[in-house]
Sequence to fold (969 residues):
Amino acid sequence: MTTDSTKAAPDRAALPAQSPPVDPAQTEAAAGHAATAKAPNRGRIPFWSGEGGEGARRNLGLLATLVVLVVIGIATRPDLYGNASWVWGNTLTILKLASVVGVVTVGMTFVIIGGGIDLSVGAIVALAGVWCTTVATQSYGAGGMIFSALVVGLAVGVVNGLLISYGKLVPFIATLAMMVAARGLAAEISDKQTQVSDNQFINGIASTSLLGIPLLVYILAAVVIAGWVLLNRTTFGRRTVAVGGNAEAARLAGINVRLHTLLLYALSGLCCGIAAIMLTAQANSAQAAMANLYELDAIAAAIIGGTLLSGGRGTIVGSLLGVIIFSTITNLFAINGLSTEAQNMVKGGIIVAAVLIQQVQFGNLGTRFGRKRASTA
Amino acid sequence: MSAADDRDPTATGPTTPDHRGEAATNDHHDDRAADQPTAGRHAAPDQEAAADRQVAPEHEAAGRHAAERAPDGGARPLVEAPADTVAGEVVLRLTDVVKTFPGVRALDGVQLEVRAGEVHCLLGQNGAGKSTLIKVLAGVHRPDSGEVMWRGEPAAFANPQAAMRAGIATIYQELDLVDDLSVAENAFLGHEPRRLGFVRRGHMARRTRGILARLGHGEIPPGRLVRHLPAAGKQVVSMARALSHEARLIIMDEPSAVLAHDEVDNLFRIIRELTAQGIAVIYISHRLEEIREIGDRVTVLKDGRTTAANLPARDTPTRDLVSRMTGRSIEYVFPDRPVDEPAGEELLTVDGLTRAGEFADVSLNVRAGEIVGIAGLVGSGRSELLETIYGARRAESGTVRMDGRALRAGSVGAAVKAGMGMAPEERKSQALLLGEPIYRNVTLATFGRYSRLGFTNAGRERDEAGRIADNLELRPRDVRRAVGTLSGGNQQKVVVGRWLLGDTRLLLLDEPTRGVDVGARAELYQVIRQLAARGVGVLLVSSEVPEVLGLADRVLVMREGRVVREAPADELDENTVLDLVMAGSLMEGAPA
Fold:
């Protein structure tokens, strides 16, 4: 016994346990100082690693990509890019091209940040578009058409949400089923015909410009700004990040995870309703096959924009940049007279490259490459 | 004597009785002191010198079993021991192995020595580092420092395949078999015998049949789909896979957890046959009686350290083993209990709460300003009880009332609204958004309060979180830092701090100091006591008996889902509680 305690004594002296509340604090504080001394920039967080800094850095990367695309455009078609008014017009064309998918992507971003996925967005756009252009709906005028598109989008989103949060279906399966079913319903309603919109107000949405900028771009801007505020400045956005980042922690903190999940899909549906009006206005018509593969465009844009497919992280600005990058590529291929096939291959490559770059940039380089591969001696 | 050995006395800290009197003097301290000599004797071997352990430890045990097992085990080995392994030779030795993950020191100086032909048991609570240790041995993780000697040579396995090739096979608790492949295909998964790229199915089946026969399970057809085998059969297939690699060491992670009683006997028979062939087995189980039956030597882990190495599995008193698992490895100092506090209003009343298979008919109450501790081992239903009170699980019967009003069953929202808060057992998976800043984690339950018309007020949240950070002496203090970069203790402060905002009147704490270092522990104890002084009721669950006794005013002891004792903390001592906690199956066959 005596040997025990004598041996133990030196160690114990070093331990803070003997006079409790003060000592550990001091020891740890001292340790903290030591750490600060070693790495002086630890105490003050530089702007780029602070709150939201990582998202901002990622978005800078996306902007750089966009710049590269523009440079490619200038290099390949200097004749067009030499003309300032053409450049402005072309920019608006790109934004207009991005507007419909952009609106869908905002809703998709919320769903993905919240830990889900929505494969039915294209089908919802088609269903809402078809629904609001039936002869019966058109008889209620523009207000009736807009109202019905929004309500149809919202309602389908709510059904998705109910299936997922209360029916406990996997989001992938629930929305896959909805994708098939909603397109089916759209074809049924339209009798597989293209429904022409006779409403001049609706058709005018796509052709009207304010101050030289198309109305569609304003709508996109409004949805993006609303989405940004919703995600970053409201309790709804905070709950979205919490639910997607750690559903169990959110639940144990008293957040109603199920209800919130339901609302996320409803929001995505609502965005599809808005997109349906925009797309109908662009085509002056609606049909069951419209908005084909929008779900993939929206998911790809969100992922390029840095939204984590497993949830808990993502930015609206990133998603917007993702959409714009895609439509810029489309535009680039169009002005160079290249095929859509080549364009799709490049888009695929861009998706992979974006994700790879994010992994390298934001994964821990040290653990990835730093340690030497050791094997059995 | 090396530096490593100097550390051992601290690791086996509970055995040093001095310094004890300085803490709040409670009865149990004296009782513990009286118990010290026993513990001290057993700790002595590993405190003396490493040389002792290496040269002349209790290796007779291994030899004895290899020789005697056959008669008493009831089954004779089917295969003679391979000539290349001398029974009793040390095949694996770990020295001061350290493995850290961000914020956690999962392994903090582990010593382990395994001999050929022995069953070496690893004991430890959840979170003691057993899983990490297994993963280090299996090549999943690589240690940060320390030495792994495998069959006399330093080893660092780059990946699980390398460990497998070196002869270390791991059988995980959730068996990693492919359900829709056959027994033979599973046994040879990843190293199928092949010729010109084609699998030699006949050859594979024959070899599988041979291995199965060696395991005493020749009746399992190699062509059967694993899906159609019972749990015990799947386990045999896992072992067949290990043998197909000619493993010299098989690690079994709680193999008995999925088995019925008679199947466990069969498992033990197989283990005895394996050890008779000179194969070493590392056996992990929470069930002490199994360790007594099958084990040769025991190593106990706590908080990532070896608290006792190479204890004889059969003769070490149960109390010794359990106190090394659950006891304090270092003196913790608990804040004084307030004297003559007026009994507060009854806050929480639980009546006859039951969930089949988890706990039954639990009734308890917590008053304002009171700390009630629940002592119990893993599996006693304590965490499940806490989650049910909180509404995270739905009770099958019984009621939970706050201030006399019944709460809606299975609704966390209702519990939070009524003034409850919980710091769950698994900090990372149940409580934190690791990538989010500290302040958002602190305000996770309350950000709605600081919002107006649904708009959050990040500035106010940062201020409030900063106030909490100052209160709890959070380090680093910057609340915009991601919570995942904090140490375990500081993460726990964030989780507890979450409920200091708002008007939480009852705090449920599940293992609040798991994975928390000593200094932060003392601070957390202080915080909990201060909360109680402010009138907050606290219901605390801990597998560390001294913690419950030192911190709580009143203690409930749970065993197998029932409350077996309730008493003021100063009427209980550690030994009484340990006896209660372990009574029944665990005490059987214990020479304590």
About this structure: Chain B is about 35% helix and 20% strand. Chain B touches chain A through 74 residues (CB under 8 Å).
